[in-house]
Amino acid sequence: MSELPPYRTHHCGALRRADVGRRVRLSGWVHRRRDHGGLLFIDLRDHFGITQLVATAGSPALQVMERLRPESVVRVTGEVVARPADTANPDLATGEIEVRVEEVDVLSEAAELPLPVATEAEYPEDIRLKYRFLDLRRQRLHENIMLRAQVIASIRRRMIEAGFTEFQTPILTASSPEGARDFLVPSRLHPGRFYALPQAPQMFKQLLMIAGFDRYFQIAPCFRDEDARADRSPGEFYQLDFEMSFVTQEDVFAAIEPVLAGTFREFAGFRRPRPWDVTPPPFPRIPYAEALLKYGTDKPDLRNPLLIADVTSAFRGGAFGLFARMIDQGAVVRAIPAPGAGAGPRSFLDQMNEWARTEGFPGLAWIAWKAGEASGPVARNLEPERTAALAAQLALGPDDAVFLACDVPRRAARLAGLARTRVGEALGLVEREAFRFCWIVDFPMYERNEETGAIEFSHNPFSMPQGGLEALKTQDPLDILAYQYDIVCNGVELSSGAIRNHRPDIMYAAFAIAGYSREEVDRRFPGLITALKYGAPPHGGSAPGIDRIVMLLADEPNLREVVAFPMNQRAEDLMMGAPSEVTARQLEELHIRVVPPKT
Q1: 3-class state of residue 289 by DSSP
Q2: In the chain, how many H helices and how many E strands?
Q3: pLDDT tens, 536-587?
Q4: Going by DSSP bridges, is the β-strand pair 39-46/49-56 parallel, antiparallel, or unpaired?
Q5: Average pLDDT of span 577-598
Q6: How far apart are the C-alpha atoms of 393 and 413, rounded to whole Å?
Q7: If pLDDT is split at 50, 70 and 90, which confidence band does 179 have?
Q8: Closest CA relative to residue 494, chosen from 208, 160, 264
Q9: How many angstroms separate the first and last alpha carbons of the chain?
Q10: What is the reported pTM?
């Protein structure tokens, strides 16, 4: 046996018909067993694939293999033989051969499994996360994590080819107001003071531009103490963080679009019978206000061809009294066309109204046309000429329908956006095999807090306002737009970005509108504001989310399916037992004590 390596001559996805007759050694996990009475088959699995093992009656190996539990780790030695033609497995790379086992050594025996590995059957999430090391052995999840690694490698290569240099920024830093709660780290050497884990490398990457490095990128970890969602991990996530000097907004777009489009094209065929189509650069640019009007959201899914329209004028002062009265009180009416729905069952129209109520809205009105005749409660009460004008404005066909959302602008946009998605799906209008990108641009610089009435930053406080200092001095803050932008793919926001505010006078003025004094800016952002006073280039960047990119490419509904060791919805690591209690001695060293929450 000494002529063979100690653990393997080949991995479990390597052997082919050309290897028949060779004596080999394999190591791996017992994936499946099939006992045919005196003839035992085992699928042996490792990272690379599966090889079928066979032990026959009278073989010393049979007695050992009969006792093996699934997921035990074994080393086998034997001869590669060809499978009979009628038992070959065309779905397996090694499906034309099997290894007749002569010797088997149990390297590590597995206990009884808390969840099966050899099946993709659904299993409770708490079990999957507690035994994540087993969950990761399952084929789909294993492939997802490998996809993630390959996507990151592809992005890194493309960024370097585009002239970017990879830098690492600090993990222990100062707290900053970036829109989410910080994770705080107490300082042992400085009692009563805390570090913060970075919500993003925002200020550090700006400082790198001010330091003269020109083009930076990093596959950066970010930490935010916020609640989990399907497209947002609690605790931590990774992003492609990048920044560029001496650039306009269009320069940033031109730099990152080939990276994203190229990466998506490279992996568009992952686990698909054929590759999906990818939007070619340049990606569409949609102003924020237009996105809210036409799509009802600033994260539009462009695979859905339906466009929302403002039809307030068709109802203002009209005979449909409910809408007319609401419009007089500040409401608007948004219309969502439903091609062909007029000729379908009325139940679909009524179900949409009931669905809107389950979403927390008063309802969703509708008008349906059948052979050109309008019907429904709205049509019966609205003047015929207004109904006809509505159909003409929306270019509706003789058998189409339209849904109508009437509410204050923000709520009307939200309902219309949700309804657009639901109608597009229900009518089969959504393009299925495509990744559709767009930029959302011209975000408002400020917004009014609905509870306090205060003017606040609406997006990134370090962005350059459109119009610069003059706009800050002369315009209504709520009318000021910023050089801020989001990139969206299939209705998923991949990142936010901006052209940065590189002038301290504009920075002070911008923060003053949001209620920050000059002294507070100096205190909260000492590194950045000081650096801006020593010559800063115009610069900008963005940070597409790695987790969300992989989630889209893997066609998974939840980020936890593309993260190796995620937390649960309550930000708990069930496998490692985090967060955990610490000892009194540790707390004493950090000069802190725990104050239990009030019950």
Answers
A1: helix
A2: 19, 24
A3: 999 999 999 999 999 999 999 999 999 999 999 999 999 999 999 999 999 9
A4: antiparallel
A5: 93
A6: 19
A7: low
A8: 264
A9: 68
A10: 0.94
The tens digit of pLDDT for each residue in 460-480 reads: 899 999 999 999 999 999 999
Taking only the tens place, the pLDDT of each residue in 255-274 is 999 999 999 999 999 999 99
The total of other beta-carbon atoms located within 10 Å of residue 270's CB is 17
* Residue 177 pLDDT level (bands cut at 50, 70, 90): low
User: What element of type H or E holds 56?
Assistant: strand 49-56
Cis peptide before 282 (omega within 30 of 0): yes
Furthest C-alpha separation in the chain: 94
Count CB neighbours of 366 within 10 A: 26
Count how many Cα atoms sit within 13 Å of the Cα of residue 167 in the half-sphere of its side chain: 18
Residue 421 and residue 549: Cα distance in Å, rounded? 21
| The pLDDT of residue 265 | 98
Asked if 462 and 498 count as a contact pair (C-beta separation under 8 A), the reply is yes
Query: C-alpha 2: how far from its chain's center?
Result: 51
* CA-wise closest residue to 28 among 9, 47, 52: 47
Other Cβ atoms within 10 Å of 598 Cβ, number: 4
Residue 298 DSSP code: S
Dist CA 101 CA 64 (whole Å): 11
* Contact present, 315 and 407 (Cβ < 8 Å): no
| CB within 8 Å of 525: residues ≥ 6 apart | 176, 203
**Cα 88 versus chain centre, distance:** 40
